[in-house]
Amino acid sequence: MKAKVLGNTLMLIVVFSLIGGFLFFVRPVKAESQLDQSFIEETSNMGGIYPDGCSYAAQTFTAGLTGTLTGVNIAITKYGPTSGPLRVAIRAVEGGDPSLDDLAYKEVPVGDQSTDWKTFFEYMVTFTPGVPVEAGTQYAIVVSYPSGGQGTMRGYALSGTPYTGGDAWDGSCYNIPDYWVRHTYGDWFFRTYVSTVLSINIDIKPGSVPNCFHIDGHGVIPVAILGSDDLDVYDIDPNSLLFGGLAVRVRGNKGPLCHFEDTNSDSFLDLVCQFEDDASNWVEGDSTATLTGNLFDGSAIEGTDSICVVPPE
Q1: pLDDT tier for residue 125 given thresholds of 50, 70 and 90
Q2: Domain 11-196 has CATH 2.60.40
Q3: May I ask the CATH class of domain 200-310?
Q4: Which of 110, 147, 166, 306 has the most neighbouring CB atoms within 10 Å?
Q5: Same fold? 11-196, 200-310
Q6: Which strands form 220-225's sheet, in the order they lie side by side?
Q7: pLDDT in tens, 250-274
């Protein structure tokens, strides 16, 4: 199958990682994240993406680490007039196929970088707050170019299927119900990065907007760790929690001053803890505060929320 350029339609050649011998511009991945899955073999068998908003390329992969997927590494080359952006999404896998719903997505500006199809530009596409992933579970990187043009999207890879944790796919919303077609000749190039610190959602002073408090060193600051499908708050070790460096208040022999309630009415129990205030811990103008801790199994957790620091009168 040969790629076609229709009129002045931009063609993108997408590679999900590093191709030896070509030129790259790279943004570094966050220091706390680590390389998890990748397929980075070289090949000259390249294919194109034609932007029509209804064609997709996907690579499924099996997470090797439990934690938070913070980003994926992709590289693109293109020729012809440009418009953007490129859309990169993470999806679940259902019945072996990439699902039709995004867990997270980001639109990447393409820009007028090159008209030479041999020059690749590498991007670290990051997701905030990230996507919770579990080791042994399959997910999908899904790439599309949503604006303008016509045509099909096809992958490029080596003969065979050297990445054993997933497959390359073509997708098109014109082909319902056979939305996804699996490639039998190889895989897309990709890298995934995972932080083993589990990203959680917190609410400082639940029910209060904005989250303001006086820096007088008196009393406690309540913080709710929000439960979800991905987080059972009963798994959290209250003794491990620190909020901006502050410890949970302890009630004599009764242990940490924490309780369970559904603070945001989403049918999931939340863990609410009271943290000992310390005036020296805050500075006027501070705008965020972070809670850290561990689950009982030792997994690290971290969440950040906005704050409003009110100076003493």
Answers
A1: very high
A2: no
A3: mainly beta
A4: 166
A5: no
A6: 202-204, 220-225, 270-276, 258-261
A7: 988 889 999 999 999 999 999 999 9
